[in-house]
TrEMBL record:
Residues 1-17 form the signal peptide. The keyword Membrane does not apply. This is YceI family protein. Keywords: Signal. SMART domains: YceI (SM00867). Gene3D superfamilies: Lipid/polyisoprenoid-binding, YceI-like. The keyword Nucleotide-binding does not apply. Residues 37-201 form the Lipid/polyisoprenoid-binding YceI-like domain.
């Protein structure tokens, strides 16, 4: 009994000490989202890729330290514009040996091509919370058009820092050989699935 009372007291103390965070503040209603210029929140934005590894399993890597801007027009989404830059050297995967290999000139050649970028050229709304975004992807020194399927995750005031924030999930597929990355094709799939989990903060 004493142990139970002590545990309850400790839990109550931790609850009182923890910062209060409002829940349910985000909205998916475009009419409630502020228009303007937003910049990437690098601490909460991830760029991921997945390939099929020798036909045995999907294998995913992740890039961090993403930067970029979003000109968001919720009332006229077709007028929105997106530009994102991803430092290739930020690549992370569970195997350091694999990371080193992927950064080498046999694969992504980080030394010669340190960044990849995506710049939108056309935004087509598909319902109130989805859009098809066409843009130019530059990877490994090659620029090709790519289509991303974008879904609004939510928008509102960040309860921690109070900044107006909007988040999207963007998905697309490319052939890496189109960008000159041909090592082990087709044993390791030519098709690469891309995901950008993006958080953007509105500039004052």
């Amino acid at each position: 009994m004493k142990l139970s009372v002590l545990a309850l007291g400790l839990a109550a103390g931790l609850a009182l000490a923890a910062p209060a965070v409002a829940q349910g503040a985000a909205t998916r209603d475009p009419a409630q989202i502020q228009a303007g210029t937003y910049v990437v929140d690098p601490n909460h934005t991830q760029a991921l890729f997945t390939v099929n590894h020798f036909g045995f399993s999907p294998y995913t890597g992740i890039f961090s330290d993403v930067s970029g801007s979003l000109e968001l027009q919720p009332a006229k989404p077709a007028e929105s514009r997106l530009k994102v830059t991803v430092p290739v050297k930020s690549l992370y995967a569970p195997s350091q040996h694999l990371v080193d290999s992927l950064k080498s000139d046999k694969w992504l050649d980080v030394a010669q091509f340190p960044e990849m970028t995506f710049t939108s050229t056309k935004v087509t709304p598909e319902g109130k919370d989805k859009a098809k975004v066409v843009g130019d992807l530059t990877l490994h020194g090659v620029t090709k058009p790519v289509t991303l399927e974008v879904t609004l995750v939510g928008a509102g005031a960040n309860p921690m820092n109070k900044k107006v924030t909007v988040g999207f999930e963007a998905k697309g597929t490319i052939k890496r050989s189109d960008f000159g990355v041909k090592t082990f094709v087709p044993a390791i799939s030519d098709e690469v699935h891309l995901v950008l989990n993006g958080a953007f903060e509105r500039k004052d």
